[in-house]
């Protein structure tokens, strides 16, 4: 495998910025979009439990309904693909069983052979200390997918805008998520920057490395 070199990596990350104005005439090509969908699916999570669902919203009317629920941010309607990141709420043993069955199938092993692993997960996530804050825990996993998605998009020359500026409860209502046991956490617009986006040229504001990173 040909890995990217450090200079190219940092150049891509410098190129990425939270895009405020997308070029509404540009659409992400299917092959590129498929790869970006795969970055969501391939995101690692604690125990591998994937407590999430990603909603890819291209429907124009739906996006027009979401915009007022998103602090009126134009990225919702101007971008090419709009992703809503949701958690599966109050994870149960059923979810873990589904994961165990999937693991057994994919790896060609028996479910019995990983019964111990199942017990550890159920004891922790469903009944143990994690269960008290299981939805916050799930949200943390979802943010990993957001980071993965944005970085991968930048590597492919696709612009993104991560968005917490939205009303999660109203998203849930409009998208009918509560009945299905899911809840909105964050969203991300993806597409191509408009030439008029003045944010593109603003210098990145980061604390000096010595203040946020320590070598011990
Ligand atoms: C979780 C998260 C939520 C954000 N929500 C919004 C948002 O709702 N609207 C927006 O324009 N930018 C949003 N941002 C963008 C940040 O303001 C931006 O990433 C930060 O200022 C750093 O700038 P840069 O991404 O351009 O390097 C969000 C960023 C993150 C990581």
Structural notes for this entry:
It contains ten helices and four strands, in the order ααβααβαααβααβα. The longest helix is centred in the C-terminal third of the chain and has 22 residues, at 134-155. It is α+β, with helices and mostly antiparallel strands. It has helices at residues 6-15, 30-41, 60-66, 75-78, 93-107, 115-126, 134-155, 168-175, 177-180, 209-212, and strands at residues 52-57, 81-88, 159-163, 182-191. Strands 1-2-4-3 form a four-stranded antiparallel β-sheet, with helices on both faces. The structure holds flavin mononucleotide. Flavin mononucleotide binds at residues 17-18, 20, 73, 161-165, 186, 204. Flavin mononucleotide is lined by residues 17-18, 20, 73, 161-165, 186, 204.
Concise overview:
With 216 residues, the protein is of the alpha+beta class. It is 45% helix and 13% strand.
Are any ligands bound, and if so which?
flavin mononucleotide
Q: Share of helix among residues?
A: 40-55%
Give the radius of gyration.
19 Å
**CATH class bucket of the domain at 19-90 and 134-194:** Alpha Beta
Poorly predicted segments:
none
Give the overall form. Answer: globular
Beta content comes to 5-15%
- Assigned CATH architecture of the domain at 19-90 and 134-194: 3-Layer(aba) Sandwich
Distance between the termini: 32 Å
Mean pLDDT: 98
Number of strands: 4
- The CATH H-level homologous superfamily of the domain at 19-90 and 134-194: NADH Oxidase
- The neighbouring-strand order within the major sheet is 1-2-4-3
Quickly give the structural class.
Answer: alpha+beta
CATH topology of the domain at 19-90 and 134-194: NADH Oxidase
What's the SSE pattern?
HHEHHEHHHEHHEH
Give me the number of helical elements.
10
């Amino acid at each position: 495998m040909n890995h990217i070199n450090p200079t190219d990596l940092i150049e891509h990350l410098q190129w990425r910025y939270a895009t405020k104005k997308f070029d509404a005439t540009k659409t992400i090509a299917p092959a590129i979009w498929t790869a970006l969908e795969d970055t969501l699916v391939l995101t690692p999570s604690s125990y591998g439990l994937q407590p999430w669902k990603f909603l890819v919203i291209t429907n124009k009317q739906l996006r027009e309904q979401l915009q007022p629920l998103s602090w009126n941010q134009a990225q919702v309607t101007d971008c090419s693909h709009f992703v809503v990141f949701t958690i599966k709420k109050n994870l149960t043993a059923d979810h873990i069983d589904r994961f165990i069955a999937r693991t057994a199938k994919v790896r060609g092993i028996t479910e019995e052979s990983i019964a111990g692993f199942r017990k550890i997960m159920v004891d922790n996530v469903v009944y143990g200390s994690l269960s008290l804050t299981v939805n916050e825990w799930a949200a943390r996993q979802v943010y990993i997918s957001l980071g993965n998605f944005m970085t991968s998009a930048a590597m492919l020359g696709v612009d993104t805008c991560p968005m917490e500026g939205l009303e999660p409860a109203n998203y849930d209502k409009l998208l009918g998520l509560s009945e299905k046991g899911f809840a909105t956490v964050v969203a991300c617009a993806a597409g191509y920057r408009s030439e008029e986006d003045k944010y593109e040229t603003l210098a990145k504001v980061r604390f000096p490395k010595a203040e946020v990173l320590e070598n011990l």
